[in-house]
Write a structure and sequence with these properties.
Layout lengths: L1 H37 L1 H10 L5 H31 L2 H19 L7 H23 L2 H4 L5 H22 L1 H4 L8 H25 L13 H14 L4 H30 L5 H29 L1 H21 L3 H29 L5 H31 L2 H19 L15
Keywords: Membrane, Transmembrane, Transmembrane helix, Transport
Membrane topology: Multi-pass membrane protein
Protein name: MFS transporter
């Protein structure tokens, strides 16, 4: 017993350090998501860089779509190359460095920097979204089958905690609003995001180790392309995985659209001020933390499929409440419920994917999950929402259309057997 206690303790400490570094990465990169994609930089791009020109909306939408499309196309190929060569951490580092450097350069952007700022944002968002593929693929390696729901939930909770932290940390720079008089403070806030991202992402590159490579060669992208084509052709051999990915495509489409238009809806339809939006997003992050942790535990108790179904029913309620809301107070309550379901549905979905994915192809399959299906849905939803809103002249009608996406996701996931396939036993 005495001889084995020391190495076992060493392995336990190493496992804990790997888990903590993995969680810290989520804490780090969500600061980019809330500040650059969701809240501050979109307003800065439209009001400051484009100086309020109506074309700013179209350019911003194009930038988001281009970056998402790029990740959707390349993620499965890069995932296959990473699995083949055992270089997952190297790819994660490259994409993270892209995002951090491009975000830091955004701190120099100002009025008239339209194309330069748009290009930097596209590079930064490709780095952020592309890195997420390799980050998520570590989940089956650091969590057991019995704890995968909790660990996924803890990851999302840390992410939302990171978002809340960066908002609180940068509040002195943001309280002046997104106005020309506050440009120096806003520019400094973008550099702060880059520094925050780099600092808290660093431990994962020092602690995490890749699984052994299938071969010792350098990444062969031609071979990776052949493997991806093989995966696409034979994905129906995994019917539950295929159904889940289709379900995920539709309900994630609706969730990402809600995230993308939450601030615009609150400001344009309900008349929220910049300060009220700041408080609103902080409250949403708080309940998202709670939802990620609580529903992560629930996922391990009742399974990811039942948890996803439960969260989709909550999303139905969120949409109906938002449509019926006429005052700010009720919309704050709706936002709290949305945060709860947002954290829980994302954590349970990642757990579901990890359960259905063969370990031999884990990064490649997560490339389809995060990249092809996740990012492609981020292209379709906002475009459709914007089209319906412009044609109908009412954002409430556009919001109501998202109920169809949640319904399709619910119907598609009901036949999925979450326990029918385990990564340890399946292989291509």
């Amino acid at each position: 017993m005495g001889c084995r206690s020391e190495p076992e303790t060493g392995r336990t400490l190493h496992s804990r350090s790997r888990l903590f570094s993995w969680l810290l990465f989520d804490y780090a990169n969500t600061s980019f998501s809330v500040m650059i994609v969701t809240f501050v930089f979109p307003l800065y791009f439209k009001n400051i860089i484009c100086q309020g020109d109506p074309s700013g909306d179209a350019l911003w939408g194009a930038g988001v779509s281009i970056s998402m499309l790029a990740v959707a196309i390349v993620s499965p190929f890069l995932g296959a190359a990473a699995d083949q060569s055992g270089s997952r951490k190297r790819f994660l580092f490259i994409f993270t460095l892209m995002s951090v450097l491009a975000t830091a350069l955004l701190s120099f952007s100002g009025p008239g920097w339209v194309m330069a700022a748009l290009l930097l944002f596209i590079v930064a968002n490709i780095g952020f979204e592309g890195g997420q593929v390799f980050y998520d693929a570590y989940l089956p390696d650091i969590a057991s089958s019995r704890s995968i729901g909790r660990v996924s939930g803890y990851g999302y909770a840390m992410g939302y905690l990171g978002a809340l932290s960066i908002l609180l940390l940068l509040y002195p720079l943001l309280r002046g609003g997104v106005v020309p008089e506050n440009i120096p403070s806003l520019q400094l806030s973008f550099f702060g995001v880059a520094l925050f991202f780099a600092l808290f992402a660093s431990p994962i590159f020092l602690v995490m180790r890749d699984r052994p490579a299938r071969d010792r060669s350098r990444p062969d992208f031609a071979r990776a392309a052949r493997e991806v084509r093989y995966t696409v052709m034979h994905i129906m051999q995994y019917p539950d995985l295929a159904r889940f990915l289709m379900a995920f495509f539709f309900y994630n489409d609706a969730i990402l659209t809600i995230i993308a238009f939450a601030s615009i809806y609150a400001q344009n339809t309900l008349g929220f001020t910049a300060s009220e939006l700041m408080v609103f997003f902080m409250l949403v992050q708080t309940t998202a933390i709670l939802g990620s942790v609580v529903f992560g535990i629930i996922t391990d108790r009742i399974g990811p499929k039942r948890t996803i179904v439960l969260t989709l029913l909550i999303w139905f309620l969120v949409i109906i409440m938002a449509i019926m809301t006429t005052g700010k107070s009720l919309f704050f309550a709706t936002g709290l419920l949305a945060g709860l379901s947002m954290g829980s549905s994302q954590a349970a979905s990642r757990s579901m994917m990890a359960r259905l994915t063969p370990k031999k192809h884990v990064t490649e399959f997560f490339g389809f999950y995060d990249g092809t299906f996740g990012k492609a849905s981020a292209i379709l939803g906002p475009v459709l929402f914007g089209f319906i809103s412009s044609q109908a002249g009412d954002q409430r009608i556009a919001l109501g259309s998202l109920l169809v996406f949640f319904l399709l996701g619910l119907l598609l996931i009901l036949p999925v057997r979450s326990g029918s396939a385990r990564p340890e036993t399946q292989d291509m």
